[in-house]
Amino acid sequence: MLSVPALSVLLLAGCGKDSPGTAPPPQAAQGKGTPVVSFEGGAVTLEQLQTYISQMNPAARTRVQSVEQRREYAEGLARFELFVREAQRQGLEKDPEVLEAAKRAMVQRLLHKEFEEKAAPVTPEDIAAYYEMNKAEFVSPARWRYSHLLVPAPQGSADRAAKKKLAQALLEKARKLQPLDFDGFDALGGEASGNPDTKPASADTHLVTAEELKERLGPEVAAAAGKLQRVGDTSAVVESPKGFHLLKLTDLRPERNQPLDAVSSMLRSRIARERRDASVSAYTVKLQEQAQFKTDTAALEKLQVNIQAPQEASSGPVPGYLPAPQPVR
């Protein structure tokens, strides 16, 4: 029986070359190099071992320091080769699961070859240009969002005093609500406007800067809004030439000021990912066009999908799948 360390090495040796700290499986030597572990028709050579160890990360190398550790590693590689040969002798290279695994490995290798190895490096100029194009994401002024109620009473109107009393009464109702009961506050809009058909959504200012709020609702309202510090805070009645206002702070977004240097690493990864996604999509479209790819929707409509039916026993490996190409921006 193989020991746990030997099995671990066997499995690690079987991982792809992209696995960190591991080495690819050995190929049977054909009289080349210095044999370390020999077996009929092949060997693990000193030169192979040196190459594999050079490709390990420092942490993995600590596990092959002593001669005994090196022996276990070398013999584990050779044992893996023996298992491969036995699997081949039994014809398992034609097994459906093996073939499916090979297809998946080929697709992964194709993706790496076409879109990782051939990818152009992301330059500092690329990062700077992307930052400028998306600067609002990294540099933006503080913004606030309010629910705003207006009791209309133009300056000089005969009922202005009565409307002020109405605004005070609405404030008392608002203060009896839970601080975060935004829907309850917005529902007071019909009473405030005198129009019962007023939609609660009309109270929403959406996110605005202090200057935008001032331009929209006037300096009196903007000054009162500036005193609201926490989400859920409600203003006193605010008097303006248009009438009487009530405000509730519903959201706030602090000022953002992320310089290029602070986000450069993140942008490098994002640009590389977006480029890769776009390249994969274009490549997929090309392959589909070359293969005259088409789908029979009428046939799909005949497909039976019963979510209540019991799951049947598997008849083979789960097939590989790739999503549809995304539109290139």
From TrEMBL:
<dbReference type="InterPro" id="IPR046357">
    <property type="entry name" value="PPIase_dom_sf"/>
</dbReference>
<dbReference type="InterPro" id="IPR000297">
    <property type="entry name" value="PPIase_PpiC"/>
</dbReference>
<feature type="compositionally biased region" description="Pro residues">
    <location>
        <begin position="320"/>
        <end position="329"/>
    </location>
</feature>
<dbReference type="InterPro" id="IPR027304">
    <property type="entry name" value="Trigger_fact/SurA_dom_sf"/>
</dbReference>
<keyword id="KW-0413">Isomerase</keyword>
<feature type="region of interest" description="Disordered">
    <location>
        <begin position="308"/>
        <end position="329"/>
    </location>
</feature>
<dbReference type="GO" id="GO:0003755">
    <property type="term" value="F:peptidyl-prolyl cis-trans isomerase activity"/>
</dbReference>
<feature type="domain" description="PpiC">
    <location>
        <begin position="141"/>
        <end position="251"/>
    </location>
</feature>
<dbReference type="Pfam" id="PF13145">
    <property type="entry name" value="Rotamase_2"/>
</dbReference>
<protein>
    <submittedName>
        <fullName>PpiC-type peptidyl-prolyl cis-trans isomerase</fullName>
    </submittedName>
</protein>
<dbReference type="InterPro" id="IPR050245">
    <property type="entry name" value="PrsA_foldase"/>
</dbReference>
<keyword id="KW-0697">Rotamase</keyword>
